[in-house]
TrEMBL record:
Keyword entries, A-Z: Pyrimidine biosynthesis
SUPFAM superfamilies per record: Composite domain of metallo-dependent hydrolases, Metallo-dependent hydrolases
Gene Ontology cellular-component annotations: cytoplasm
One Pfam family per UniProt: DHOase
GO BP annotations listed: purine nucleobase catabolic process; pyrimidine nucleotide biosynthetic process
Organism: Rhodovulum marinum
GO molecular function: allantoinase activity; dihydroorotase activity; metal ion binding
Name of this protein: Dihydroorotase
Domain Dihydroorotase catalytic per the UniProt entry, residue ranges: 49-234
InterPro entries recorded: DHOase, DHOase/Allantoinase_Hydrolase, DHOase_cat, Metal-dep_hydrolase_composite, Metal_Hydrolase
Length: 424
């Protein structure tokens, strides 16, 4: 079975190109790309001059199975991902119970396989119960399919425990993903320190809490030699430490959430809890610095940090409301804000959305090269719309972009050459 994607605007993050062409798929893989006269195929998809790019690889998606299926299931998350152009979800282990044993990981893998139309690559906890006291059986969990190890936003406070876990992970070639926030300084905070937080009377934390935690982690990386990824860099003050580690040859990468790239602390306004995320939204100067870091390649990965919360946990006073926002369907149009602002071109943007996260996890996706999996997204970058959160496919509707004017519509999503979403 061959499928020709004709009359496309090919976005190739590996080659760094953006131009007209065609792409030929045979079975589950890409057979060829080119310009000029297209070859014949059994089926032809006319792209109408719209953008065809590798499917998004989203690191840090929370699917609330097991434990909180009313917030999000693999079925609803998979449908949301397909509608958002996400072809691989890298899921977090902060479930109830935590994904910290091969048995729980097997359950998650089976549920994902049965319910989700997109690929699922699960992460496992770094310590048992995400309690920071005893490391998990990293080797067994790797054998069961874990692609990385993280305690999520529960920072391992005991440096000796973390160093031992990193040393063991290094011996197995496992990737450790950390959340660089000093837990003592961050405890109870829901805003970034500054004039805005003071005027609103919100308990706040300095961005230095991020830099301090990152400095500790990078020192342990130097000591152990582990493969390390910071899930979210959100403060400009943390960027020099990240740059030094990279320049010193450490096996270090970093990500940033789409919310910290496109929103700032002032968007909280009069205590709008859908804008309460973790870490809290930063100053505009931080946001601009992060965009520049993505454009330069210092920050490697953009993710949605999809965190579903039900209405009851968000309709509370700002300090008491749960943190997090859904982002699978809004990741692509929100990221295109950076393109329309001429801050990042599409090939660079897709390096951070697709190629770099795939490479970090050792996946073959994220490319338009011959032999790569045919995980693709066709989208119109200029299509305007006003987001209605009740139209989202996620069970939870806690998006900060509700009512926002956005651009970018997914026209089609393919996983292993099979169409899993058809846009309007």
């Amino acid at each position: 079975m061959t499928t020709l994607f004709a009359n496309a605007r090919l976005i190739d993050p590996e080659a760094g190109t953006d131009g007209p062409g065609w792409l030929l798929v045979e079975g589950e893989t890409i057979l060829a790309t080119g310009t000029g006269e297209a070859p014949e195929a059994r089926e032809t998809v006319d792209c109408g001059g719209k953008c065809l790019a590798p499917g998004i690889v989203d690191i840090g998606v929370k699917v609330c199975e097991p434990g909180e299926r009313h917030k999000e299931s693999f079925g609803s998350a998979g449908a949301a991902a397909a509608a958002g152009g996400v072809t691989t979800m890298v899921t977090r282990p902060d479930t109830l119970p935590a994904i910290d044993t091969p048995e729980v990981l097997e359950f998650v893998t089976r549920r994902a396989r049965d319910a989700s139309p997109v690929r699922i690559r699960p992460m496992a906890a770094l310590t048992k119960g995400r309690e920071g006291r005893e490391m998990v059986e990293i080797g067994f969990l790797q054998d069961a399919g874990a692609v990385a190890f993280t305690d999520g936003d529960k920072v391992v406070e005991n440096t000796k425990v973390l160093s031992r876990a990193m040393t063991y992970a290094r011996s197995l070639g496992a990737l450790v993903i950390a959340h660089p926030q000093d837990p003592g300084l961050s405890d109870g905070a829901c805003a970034t320190s500054g004039k805005f937080a003071s005027l609103r009377g919100l308990p706040a934390v300095s961005p230095m809490a991020e830099r301090m935690a990152l400095d500790r982690d990078l020192a342990l990386v130097e000591m152990t030699g582990v493969k390390y990824h910071a899930d979210q860099i959100t403060a400009a003050r943390a960027l020099p430490a990240l740059e030094r580690a990279k320049n010193n040859g450490r096996d270090v990468t970093a990500g940033v959430s789409i919310h910290h790239l496109t929103l700032n602390e002032l968007d909280v306004g009069d205590y709008r809890t859908f804008f309460k995320v973790k870490p809290p939204l930063r100053a505009e100067t931080d946001r601009v610095a992060l965009v520049e870091a993505v454009a330069s390649g210092l920050i490697d990965v953009i993710s949605s940090m999809h965190t579903p919360q039900d209405e009851e946990s968000k309709r509370l006073p700002y300090e008491e409301a749960a943190s997090g926002a859904v982002g699978l369907e809004t990741l692509l149009p929100a990221a295109l804000r950076l393109y329309h602002a001429e801050a990042i071109d599409l090939p660079r943007l897709w390096r951070a959305l697709s190629l770099n996260p795939a490479r970090r996890l050792g996946l073959e996706t994220g490319r338009l090269a011959r032999g790569a999996p045919a995980d693709l997204v066709l989208f119109d970058p200029d299509f305007p719309f006003v987001l209605d959160r009740f139209g989202l496919r996620s069970k939870s509707k806690n998006t900060p972009f509700d009512g926002a004017k956005m651009q970018g519509r997914v026209l089609g999503t393919w996983v292993a050459g099979v169409r899993v979403h058809e846009g309007g």
